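Example S7 (structure tokens).
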């Protein structure tokens, strides 16, 4: 089972090149509600950080209908929220003489957000992994295999990240504290989560907007050693009760470049030769309180070349990634 998890970790790292933000639908998810792991982690001594993203200010395309207002995040110190977040990955991979379908089980996480000090630059956040587990419906995994996977994921429970939520809705400087002896596969899982969290809500424009407003954001981030450009277009569908609701479309591309993938055999190198993904989504974000919803799906293709001992293997992958997030009632 450990070998299977390591294989999934390397494929997840490869697939992460495609998407730096969540994209909709969630037909990938089954209805199985497997119990999450709740084991306490080892003491934290090292840090895992989200990929650094250079984001241009959003470009306002349409200010929307009157009345218009500035959209600003203004959390209160002591505010808390519990967010459920499920991610799913499917890959169809073609290599010389072989076609594989890799359907990893959806991973369900329960995250507790706590607001610390607040000033003009934003609000300090602590994000704690309260529970994490695999959902097995549709994956062909047995109950025993799912239990083994939950046991492997258990060391992530209790790990905490710190970040700053800016007034424009960006989650900056996100970093997880992690044990020094955390395995490569769990480090990859934690890195993936650190990459996903800042993208669970949109960056907000500086100009006042109303319902129907739309804006475009372009960001560049590094994932698995690769530089990815993502263009997101957000359209406001409602503004009420301190919450903005929206729909979004996303397009991510990456130029040919070397990859740093966990789980590869010693001496094996990986290079991304082509990458393209598009998707759409719906969501909402609290402005005066910590709250978010998200339902997204992305799909795309990528080509990867592996080289080891002078031998080259060309992989062609079709990838589907789905995310669902919701804030639990307080």
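Recovered sequence:
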């Amino acid at each position: 089972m450990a070998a299977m998890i390591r294989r999934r970790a390397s494929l997840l790292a490869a697939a992460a090149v495609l998407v730096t933000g969540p994209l909709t639908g969630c037909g990938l998810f089954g209805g199985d509600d497997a119990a999450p792991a709740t084991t306490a982690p080892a003491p934290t001594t090292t840090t895992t950080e989200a990929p650094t993203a250079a984001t241009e200010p959003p470009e306002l395309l349409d200010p929307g209908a009157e009345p218009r207002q500035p959209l600003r995040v203004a959390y209160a110190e002591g505010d808390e929220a519990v967010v459920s977040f499920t991610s799913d990955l499917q890959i169809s991979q073609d290599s010389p003489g072989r076609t594989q379908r890799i359907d990893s089980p959806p991973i369900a996480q329960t995250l507790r957000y706590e607001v610390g000090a607040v000033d003009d630059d934003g609000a300090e956040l602590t994000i704690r992994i309260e529970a994490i587990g695999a959902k097995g419906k549709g994956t062909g995994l047995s109950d025993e295999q799912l239990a083994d996977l939950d046991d492997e994921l258990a060391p992530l429970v209790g790990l905490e990240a710190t970040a700053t939520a800016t007034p424009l809705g960006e989650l900056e400087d996100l970093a997880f504290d992690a044990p020094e002896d955390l395995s490569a596969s769990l480090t990859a899982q934690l890195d993936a989560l650190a990459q996903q969290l800042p993208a669970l809500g949109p960056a907000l424009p500086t100009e006042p907007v109303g319902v129907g407003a739309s804006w475009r954001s372009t960001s560049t981030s590094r994932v698995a050693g690769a530089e990815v450009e993502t263009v997101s277009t957000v359209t406001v569908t409602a503004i009420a009760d301190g919450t903005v609701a929206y729909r979004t479309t996303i397009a991510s591309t990456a130029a040919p470049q070397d990859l740093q993938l966990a789980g590869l055999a010693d001496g094996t190198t990986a290079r991304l030769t082509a990458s393209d993904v598009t998707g759409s989504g719906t969501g909402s974000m609290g402005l005066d309180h910590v709250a978010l919803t998200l339902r997204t799906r992305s799909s795309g293709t990528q080509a990867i070349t592996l080289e080891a001992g002078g031998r080259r293997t060309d992989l062609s992958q079709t990838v589907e990634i789905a995310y669902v997030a919701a804030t639990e009632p307080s």
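Notes on this example. The first strand starts at residue 46 and ends at 49.
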